[in-house]
Amino acid sequence: MSKVKLRILGLSSSQSNTGFALILAESKGVRRLPIIIGVFEAQAIAIEIEKITPHRPMTHDLFKSFAKALEFKVEEIMISDLKEGVFYAKIVCTTKNGDVMEIDSRPSDAIAIGLRFSVPIFVDENIMSEAGIIVSDEELDEQIEEDEEEASTHSSGNERYKNTSLQELQKMLNEFLEKEDYEEAARIRDELNKRN
What we know:
Elements: E1 3-13, E2 20-26, E3 31-37, H1 39-49, H2 59-69, E4 73-83, E5 86-94, E6 100-105, H3 107-117, E7 121-124, H4 125-131, E8 133-134, H5 137-157, H6 166-178, H7 182-195
Parallel strand pairs: 4-7
Antiparallel strand pairs: 1-2, 1-7, 2-3, 3-8, 4-5, 5-6
Helix pairs in contact: 1-3, 2-3, 6-7
């Protein structure tokens, strides 16, 4: 089996408004692999990408705690199959004895867990050939412009916090985390990081 290494390009609202599209890009190439995922799974991925620590551990954090307690290590995430438009994944682990295990998973959960362990994400070449989208140079240029615009919008969204004291920002951060409003918490965290 030939595998292709992927990186997370981003999350965007799906056209059906019932979930999100997780866009994966091959590390060395122009193909993209979009996977539709649920809102909660998108949130679990986004808060790990943003390095937000929720007040209560999420399911994927619980998995990481179990793994550490049982002394097994996640090695990689593998998007292993595509049947009737549904993607399947495996979490590849090693036990403390060195045995290799593959745990079946939805790709969204596997990726959320993989992010928490900082492991690579792969897809079978056959799946990438079947479901991948080739992006033209023009589309890549448009994507770069969109990314720069989004980064600019994200940083200007933090302007409202620039005159807020560090103590007040910390209080607001805790309130947003308590309400599980991770998007606003990320903006406040960015402002705090900018000042440090």
